[in-house]
Design a protein that fits this description.
It is a single chain. The chain is an alpha/beta fold. The chain folds into 2 domains: 70 residues, no CATH class; 62 residues, 2,3-Dihydroxybiphenyl 1,2-Dioxygenase, domain 1 (Roll), CATH 3.10.180.10. The protein is built from 3 helices and 8 strands. A 4-stranded mixed beta sheet has the order 1-4-3-2. Strand 3 and strand 4 form a beta hairpin. The longest helix is centred in the first third of the chain and has 11 residues. The chain starts with 8 loop residues before the first strand and ends in a 5-residue tail after the last strand.
Length: 165
C-alpha cells in the first residue's frame, strides 16, 4: 500500500470563480458540492497575507469523494499575489499541470467548448493504442486539450475498446 490514497482534489487558483464555473460546472457538467467564503486573520495568515477573502468552490463528477476540482478565488488580498506568466497556448512547459477528464460525450463537449470560444492546444486527435494494461487498456482514444479561463490545460479523453477485444 502506498503512503497516500487517490488524489482528493486539484486546486486551481482562479482570477474569477464565475468564469471558471461557466466551464467546469456549465460546460463540463461537474457538480458543485461546496461553495463558501472564508475571511479573517487566520485565513490571511494561512495564505501568507495581511488580509484577504477566499472563495472556495469544490466540484466533483457524480458525487465522487475524490478527484475534485477546487476553484479558489482570492480577493481583497494584501499584498496582492504575483501573476504567473501566461502559458504558451501552442505547447506545454515543465512544471505545468494538466487536468484530465474522461468522457463518453466528446463531440457534444467539443461543440459546446468551440461555441464558448475556448482555445485548443491540441485539436481533437484520434489514435489507437494496440496494447495496454490496467487503467490504460488497448483501444481507440480520442483526445483534445484546451485552456481554461486561467490558462490551465484541460484534456478530454474518450475511450472505445478495440473490435473483438
Amino acid at each position: 500500500m502506498s503512503g497516500v490514497g487517490p488524489l482528493k482534489r486539484l486546486t486551481l487558483w482562479v482570477r474569477n470563480a464565475e468564469a471558471s464555473l461557466a466551464l467546469y460546472r456549465d460546460l463540463l457538467e461537474l457538480e458543485v458540492i461546496e461553495d463558501k467564503l472564508l475571511e479573517g486573520i487566520a485565513v490571511a495568515a494561512l495564505l501568507g497575507l495581511e488580509a484577504g477573502r477566499l472563495r472556495i468552490v469544490h466540484l466533483a463528477s457524480g458525487g465522487r469523494q475524490d478527484g475534485w476540482i477546487g476553484l479558489y478565488e482570492l480577493s481583497a488580498a494584501r499584498p496582492a499575489p504575483p501573476e504567473l506568466a501566461p502559458p504558451d497556448p501552442r505547447r506545454f512547459a515543465y512544471g505545468q499541470a494538466v487536468a484530465v477528464f474522461e468522457t463518453n460525450a466528446m463531440d457534444a463537449l467539443l461543440e459546446r467548448l468551440q461555441r464558448g470560444g475556448y482555445h485548443f492546444m491540441q485539436a481533437p486527435i484520434d489514435y489507437v493504442k494496440p496494447s495496454g494494461a490496467g487503467p490504460t487498456p488497448a483501444g481507440r482514444y480520442r483526445e483534445a486539450i484546451f485552456l481554461d479561463p486561467d490558462g490551465v490545460p484541460v484534456s478530454l479523453i474518450q475511450y472505445e475498446p478495440l473490435a473483438g477485444a
